[in-house]
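Weekend entry, working from home. Most of the wet-lab plans are on hold until the incubator is repaired, so I used the time to fold the two sequences that have been sitting in the queue since the last round of cloning. Logging both here for the record. First:
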Amino acid sequence: MVRLIHMADTHLGYRARRGTINQWAIQNYSRPYEQEIYDTFLKIMEEISKVKNLDFLIHCGDMFHHPFLYNSYPPPEPARRTFEEGLKIFFRNTNNQVPFIYIEGNHGIFRGYEFTPFESHIKEEENLNIYYFKERDLINAIKEKKTLKLEFPAKKIRFYVFPYFEFKSFEFYQQQYDNWIENQRPPKNDGFINIALAHGSIGDDTLHSKLNSDDLGYDYVALGHEHGLKQLSKNHYYSGSLLPMNFKEIFEKQGYLVVDIDDKTKYLKVEKVFTDPLLKRDFKIITIEVYPTQTSIDLQKKIKEELDPYVTDKGFEPKTAARLKINFTGEITFEKNWQINELMSSIRRDCFSELEKYNILQLIWKVIDISEILEDDISAGKIQDYILEKPDDEFKTFVGEKLNEEQSNYDVDKLTQIGMKALKKALRAMEREKEV
């Protein structure tokens, strides 16, 4: 029997940024949600290091959040310290006897360099039981037409590794990758357990179709890249991240997997360990229905009612401050859209300026247009009929109110004329998109 821990997508160094309050969890060190990810990572490394009869720890990419394609900043210092501390915990508790196998994901790698944070932060003289594979190792294997694998003959187990590689970026890459992947097909009936480690997804074309299917004949396929813990087939699993990163992920489960593989029958027993319950703060989406005749005062009252649970005597607490997103749905006119955005901007300023009152870390919102919930074949006509009922009057009222607030002397009629030309042009563009 072989036992391994499968984890991925820890994203050390991730910070919630959009619509967040500018406060520290630890002064001049880490932000609130960033620190929660560090704390959870260390807790899990302690936990898995005490799993009985553990043979391997595998991590399928994205140990760090930075750098990535559009952000060249290195991992922040707290992330690197947490990484090192987590490794020390694991190897100390396992007496350095359990190998840690890591493949690169699309986060945490320096595209233009030949080293990773693993190489810059692990001292060779410490002889830690670590094996890591980066994009460069994969490219070299493709060039040399060699298998990229790791074998442990004493345990009769073999790992085939697939670091993140955008092989469909260019036709040449895809052709070479298609030819090479046959080198990753394990031999039959040689008594070895064959496991694949990959970072990618069929959804964004970063996971090869042969790896996504059972074509190559692996006994277990450990995947990273998608942040929800889930089973794709009888032996294909994503472990997910440890905590949800954004509001799309709050509907998924996060955690890690304890995998037992019978060395004779290849029978799989997979235990799902969920870590999202470790989340100490509210992380939720609130839905508010609006309608055209609703006054600004009524809408403000409704929003404040939803935020009342986060008004406390203690005020802002980094470990428990809520992450909230408000979805406004219903019949949304131009005027109502502007009204909502103005109102929410003001409310967020109040929440973030009154630290002694509100326990809110993040507050964002989305105005969901009626066209998003109607069928495609009628949505364009419906929204145009609705919005263009009295657009000039609505827009002129809005412009007049704004100019009055700012005590400006601009010509209301002229501004309305210019604004309506732009809006009608946008609607015509939307109509053309619907026709395509």
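Second, folded right after the first finished:
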Amino acid sequence: MATRLVQINTKAQDDSALGRFWAQALGWGIGSEGPGVTNLEPVGFPYPDRTPGVAA
């Protein structure tokens, strides 16, 4: 089974700029849990996958 990256969490001096750079480079969406934290996730990819019968 292949590994798939599903989230990148950045904490940096300018986390929003770093997050925007990687979101654009990867074609991913961007969000935040709060000040100083930027999260990147693939657009349209549910995580964790709630599909029955799929091994975690």
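Plan for Monday: verify the second prediction. The CA atoms of residues 12 and 27 lie 20 Å apart.
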